[in-house]
Amino acid sequence: MILALIELPWNCKLVTAAWGELNDQQMAATIQSTMIRASAGSGKTFQLANRFLALMMLGESPEKIIALTFTRKAAGEFTGRIMTRLADGASSEPQADELAAELRQVIEGTEAIPALVAGSGLVLPKMDASFFQQKLAELIDVLDRLALSTLDSYFVRIVRNFYLELGLSGFELMEDAAISAERMAVMKVIFSHRKTGKQDRDGFIQSFKQATWGEQENRLCKTLEDFIQMHQNRWLSSPDNDCWGSADQLWLSGCPYPEGDIKELARELRTMMGKPYTPHATYMKGWLKVCDLLEQYQPGVPLNLNTQLKRAIPLWDQYKLGGKVEEKNKYEISTEIGKVMSALVGNYIKAEIEVCMKRTQGLYKLISAYEERYRDHVRNRGKLCFSDLTMLLAGEGALQIWDGDDRNLIDFRLDARYDHWLLDEFQDTSRPQWKAVGNLIDEIMQDAEGGRSVFVVGDSKQSIYGWRGGEPRLFEDLKKHYGDRLADWDMDLSYRSTQAVLDLVNTVCDLSDPKWRAIFPAAAIDRWIYHAHTPNTDGPGHAMVMEADVDVSATSDEKKEARYRSMVSVIKKVKPLERGMSCAILVSKNAQVTEIVQYLRAEPHCLPVASESETHLADGPIGSVILDLFRWLRNPAHSFGYIHVCSSPLGAVLAELSGSEHQQQQWQWLTDELAQQGVQCLLNRIISRLRESQPISAYGNSRLDEIQAAAADFSSRGGTLNEWVQMLEKRSIKETSHEGMIQVMTVHKCKGLGFDMVILPELISSSEFTSSGRVDALERKGEMGDLEYVIKKPNQAICDADDALAKMSGAWSEDQCYERFCNLYVALTRAKKATYCILDPVKGDWQPKAKYDDWIREATAAHGEHQEEINDEKCTVLYESGDWLAFDGSVEQPAEAELPKASVKLPQASARMSRKLASETTAYQAGDLLRNSKGMSFGDRVHKQFEQIAWLDDLPEFSEAGSSKAVAECLQVPEIRHHFERPTVPFQLLREQPIETQHEGRWVSGVIDRALVLMEEGKASAITIIDFKTDAKQTVESLRTKHTPQLHIYRAALHRITGVPVDKITCYLLATELKQMVAID
C-alpha cells in the first residue's frame, strides 16, 4: 500500500475509454456528485454498490474509488455486495441484462434518481456477460488494493504512512486494554516519589480538589482515572485556558449581576421588611426564610431552597423594578425593597455560577497536568488511540502538532490517490473526522473537468452516536456549502418493512402535529424532518402497542416482571424460531441485555437466546466468583472475596485441591501454585476440577472457556497478579449468535440490521430526555462546531435564570431530545414483518412527558384500546395494525442453534437472584429471577438512599424530595433507628454485598442489602440481616409471605460462610411504606 501510494504521480488523471470518446465534450458531460438521504430500509447499501459498479462501467479503475463507512461489518457487506452483483452479471446473459439495466438507470438517471453523468453525449459500452467477466477479473486483480474500509482504518493507513510528516517519532495503535494500562502507568508516574516532585504531586491533587469543590467525590466519579477519561477529549479539542470557566467568556457583554455581599444584603432585606403583617404575612415569612438561608450560605455547600427562593430565582431581575412581580400579581413591593431582593438573589445566582467556574478551572488544571505527562510517556512515543488519530489528522486543539506545509504535502499526495469518494452513514461523522478528510473532498468538488465525484449517503433520523461525536448537522452544512454541485435524493421507499410495521413508524415518528411542541423542545422538532414511509411490496405484517397486565401501583420490579411475561407470551404466540424467522429484542442499556438474556434462559422458559452486546468477563455468577478468588489472592485482607468463594461451588474445589479447609492454608497453597505455574496453569486446574464436580450449563461453560482464553492471553505476555485482576475486571466479550436464536441487543448495536420480528420491552424511563441529571458540563460551540466555552453545570434553576447558561442548556436539551428521536426511530424500523412495544399501565391523570413510553402512548392514543389474551397472558392493546402472523406449522424449521462447545452436556443455567422480588408469585423458589431495576421510581430512590447510610452519626444530607423525607421519617422510628446506631463492640458492616451460594442443588446469586456482623475474639458471633423493602400497599403478613424464602436463603448462606449458628442470625425486612421492622423467623 505504501509503495502504491508513493509511486503514483501527484498530478495523475485517469481518462477512461468512455471518457476518451467524450474528450471534446468534457463540459457537456460530467460526473455528478450526489447526496442521498436514505431512510431506514430504503436500500442505501444497494445504491452504494450500484454507484461503485457504475463508475467501473464508465472505465474508472476500482483503485481510484474509495468507500468509507463506520463498521467493519458494513464495509464487508458493501464489498460482498459488489462482488456478488458482478459475479451474477458475469454468470449469464439474462442476469447481465438485468444488471446492465440497473446500472444504466444509475448512470443516466430517472425522474426519481439523479443521473451519475450530467449532460449529453455519453456512449456506454455494451454491458453483456463477457463485459462483466472482464470487470470482475479487473476487480479481483486489485482486490488487495481496494479502499473499501472503515473511516478509522483509513486514518490508520494515513498515519502509518506519514507519521514523520505528522510530527510523530513512530506509530503504534493502542487497543482498549492497552489504553487503560497506559493511563494507569501515567497515574503511577504522577504519584511516584522518584519520578514526580512533591510540589507537582500536591498540585495535581489540589487541582482535583478544586475540580470537585463542594461535591462528594463518589458522586462525581468512582476513580481519578474515570474522572480524567470523562473530560480528556474535551480538553484535547480545546486546550485554551480561556475556554474553561472564564467569567469573561461566559458573559461576553459583562457580568449581569450586581456587586454585593450576600450576608449583608440578607440582613438589610430583613431589616427593611420588618415583622410580617396581614394580609402578606405568608409572603413576608417566605422572604425572611430566604434571608435566613442566604445569611448562612456557603458557596459550594448544597442549599435546601425554600419555596420562595425557588420562585424568586427566575424573577431575580424583575424585583428591582418594584410593583407586582409574582404570584399572579398578588403581591406588590416597593422599588427600594425590590432592588435589595434583586441584588440578594442575583448575588446568590452569581455565587453558584462562580462555584461551577472554579470547578471548571480546577478541571482544566487537572487535565492539563495529566496531559503533560501522558504526552511525554505515551503520545511522544508514537502510541495513539483511534480518537488521537482523528484529532491529529484534523489538526484539532492540542494535537495540532504538524507543520502546515507538511500537511499540505500529505493532502496533495492523498488527493492524487482517489478520484471518487463514497461516504456511508454520514450522519455519524464527527466534525474532527470531517476536518480530517474535508480538504480532500473540497478538491474533488472543485474539479473543473467534471471527472471526479463525491457520493454521500446517510440519514439524519438515524443519528444515534452523538455521545461519541456524531454530528447530523454536517449533512445540511455540506449541502449549504456545495449547493447545486451536490445533487439531492430523498429515499423513503422501504424495501425492508411491511405496511403494518410502517403504519406504527409513521404514527409515532411524524411530529408535525403542534401538540408535540408542548412535550419536546421546539428546536428539536424543527430539526426533525420526516416523510411518511411506504413499503415497496405488500405482505402480511403486524404491529402492536400493549400494556402489561400489572397494577399501576406495583413496584418497578413487578412491572418489569409483567413486561417480561408479556414478552415471552408474544414469542410463544408468534413462534418465530419454529417458523424460521429472525427475532430481536431491543433495549437501551447493556445491563438490560444481560437481564433479559438471563430471564429467557432460565426455567421455565429455557429459550435459545444470545446477547449481541459486549459484556464484562466477570459478569454473572461464574465470572464474579473467579474474579473474587484472585482479588483475595492479591489481598488476603479482602475477606468477603474469600467468603464469596467459599459460599460458591468453587469453595469445595479449593478445599479439595489444597487439602485444607482453613483460609490461611488455602491462600498459601494457591499463591505457591501461582508462583510456580502461573495464572493459566492454576486456573485451568481449578476449572477442570470445577467442571468435574459441579453441573454447569452450556452458557456457564462458555464463560469458563472465555476466562481460560483470557488467562492464555495474559500468560503469553506476562504481568503481575494485580494486572491479571485488572484484566479480569475490564475484559469485555461478545457472544456468538446463530440462526434459530433470539437475539438481544441494544439499539446502538442493531443499527443497519433487520429482523422479521422485533420486541421492545424496555421503553420505560423515570427521567425525561432532557433531564438535567444526564449532563455534567455545558458547552458553547461556534458555527463550525468548535468548542468555544465549557463550564461545569449548575443546578437547572440557576441555568434557567442566566441568559448565557440558558442558551447552552437549551442547546444541550435540543441535542439530547433529537438523539432520542433517532433512537426510537431506529428501534421501530428494524422489523420486517412485526413490531411489539410493551408499556406499563399509567394512572388516570397521566400527562405525556418527553419519554419513550409517553411518546408512543400519546401518538397512538386516537386508536382506542381493547383487552386481549396472548398465550394465556392478559394485556391491554393500545394500538394495532395488521394481524397476528398466521402459522400452520408447515414452514421448515431451522436446525437447532448450536451453542458454544462445552466439555460435557449440562443442564440449563439457573437464573440470577437479585435483591428485590420481581415475581408476583407468593413464594420464592431458588434460582428464580429477582431482578434489580435500574429505574428510579419513588421506591427505588428510597431504597438507594438507605443503601448509602452507614450509621446515624454519619448521615448524608437529606433534601426536601419526598424520598429523602420518607427515609428521614423512618429513621425517627425507634425500632428502625436502633439498627443504624453504631455498635460499641467490634463489628463488620456489609452493605449491598453480593453473594453466590448453593441452595437445593442450584447455584444462586443474591445481594444482601445490609448485614451487621458482631465479632468476638476475631470471629463472627452474631449477624443481623436487613433487607430494604419499598413495596406499596402491603401488610406485615403479606411482606413476610412474599419475602421470607429470600431471607432464608441469605441466612443459610451466611451460616455456611461464617459458621455462625442459625439461631444467632436474625433477619428483618425494613418496610419503608409501613415504617416498621418486620422480623423473619
Give the strand tally.
31
- Helix tally equals 37
Helix content, binned percent: 40-55%
Low-confidence stretches: 1-27, 215-222, 891-936
Strand content: 15-25%
- Average per-residue pLDDT, rounded, comes to 84
The spatial strand order of the largest sheet comes to 17-20-16-21-24-15-26-25
What Rg is obtained from the alpha carbons, in whole angstroms? 33 Å
Shape: globular
Largest sheet: 8 strands, mixed
N- and C-termini, Cα separation: 75 Å
Structural class of the helices, strands and pairings? Answer: alpha/beta
Give an overview of the whole structure.
The chain is α/β, with parallel strands linked by helices. It is 45% helix and 15% strand. β22 (777-781) and β23 form a beta hairpin. α7 packs across α17 and α25 packs across α26.
